[in-house]
């Protein structure tokens, strides 16, 4: 389900940031982009949202809805892109990690063909900020809003200034690499805000190692921060759960009796054999006398 239901979004009672609402596509919507968006839509969206304009969406709760409906089309391109990127609710997944930015815009270009009054806003070509050696990034966690915030500033000229229109990607460090979580773009204050999932497993205390990454023109800004915003996990010894008789408390009573009985049986048998050997020795001694 590529396009997130705005009904789901409303239920979450969280507005799309103003900067993201105003965001526009970096290229002109063309028949080629529409055709590409159609293929992406059919592969990722049709199973839930159905065919645009036919109201044959899946009967789910909440209802996915029809992308051709007025309820969808009244949203800006930026709002659609934001929901595609970040997902929302239980049913709407995050597509920042599976669809590229261009692919997400292509889906929007396809959906917009079902709005006869739609006129594409000015192209955002060249609006992305270029990174320089004087830029720095700070990562923090807003406990009140449960948001991770990346702040990028430029100290060129000796004075720090916020840098807008920088795409920042957020990851969680794992044993075998970084797990992509989501992405956002810095606003006029140089801040990129992320609604962080609450179901990512952390350590026993819920700590997660967050990695923020921004890159362009061959340059890269990155920062790592540990925050207690994950889901605490209980470390269990696999042997305690899976071994059959590694400890007495895990062994069934009948198994303990069988084991003890078997050991006693072996001891008694060995004792009996030794007793017989002793008797045989005594008999041989008597015969020799």
From TrEMBL:
Pfam families given in the database record: Cytochrome_CBB3
InterPro entries membership: Cyt_c-like_dom, Cyt_c-like_dom_sf, Cytochrome_c-type_DH
Keyword Glycosyltransferase: no
Cytochrome c domain location: 32-115
UniProt keyword annotation of Transmembrane helix present: yes
UniProtKB keywords: Heme, Iron, Membrane, Metal-binding, Transmembrane, Transmembrane helix
Chain segments annotated as transmembrane: 253-277
Highest taxon of source: Bacteria
A GO molecular-function annotation: metal ion binding
PANTHER family, per database record: ALCOHOL DEHYDROGENASE CYTOCHROME C SUBUNIT, BLL4482 PROTEIN-RELATED
The protein's name: Cytochrome C oxidase, cbb3-type, subunit III
Protein species of origin: Williamwhitmania taraxaci
Record lineage: Bacteria, Pseudomonadati, Bacteroidota, Bacteroidia, Bacteroidales
